[in-house]
Specification:
Length: about 140
């Protein structure tokens, strides 16, 4: 969920996602339903999101985890995932995501690295700096 916001901001899959799915994403992060995502809710989401993406559940996100998570996500949204799509679209996006989050460049993303990346993203999305992500701020992440 914040998967889109937190997880793969700026990737092809985000731009393919339907508006309805993104709306659901916001609602699923906003647990107390007050219409904003605070850092506590975002934090709680990081754990869920990390383990969602850690397809082989070894506690690290590797290129293969990112790739498989994206394939699953694309299939869930009804896309036909051919090997062509994987090599042309998904693999480059997975690589980009890994590079973005892998600060020490050892080829895998620890939960600490992931959390750090999401915190940066959170700050960037929080345009008015009130420590919360409103629906408007959340929606505006697209097209960046
Ligand atoms: Ca893994
Ligand atoms: Ca790393
Ligand atoms: Ca805000």
């Amino acid at each position: 969920m914040l998967r889109v916001f937190f997880g793969i901001a700026g990737t092809v899959l985000v731009t393919c996602a339907s508006y309805a799915q993104q709306t659901d994403a916001f609602l699923s992060i906003d647990r107390n339903e007050d219409g904003v995502i605070d850092s506590f809710e975002a934090d709680a989401h990081v754990d869920v999101d990390f383990s969602d993406r850690d397809v082989d559940q070894d506690g690290w996100l590797t290129l293969s985890d990112f790739e498989q998570a994206m394939v699953q996500e694309a299939r869930r949204s009804g896309a036909k995932v051919t090997s062509q799509v994987v090599s042309d679209v998904i693999r480059p996006a997975a690589r980009q995501q890994l590079q973005m989050l892998d600060h020490n460049q050892d080829g895998s993303v620890s939960k600490a690295e992931y959390r750090e990346g999401q915190a940066v993203l959170f700050k960037r999305m929080d345009r008015n700096g009130d420590g919360k992500i409103s629906r408007e701020e959340f929606d505006r992440r697209r097209g960046e």
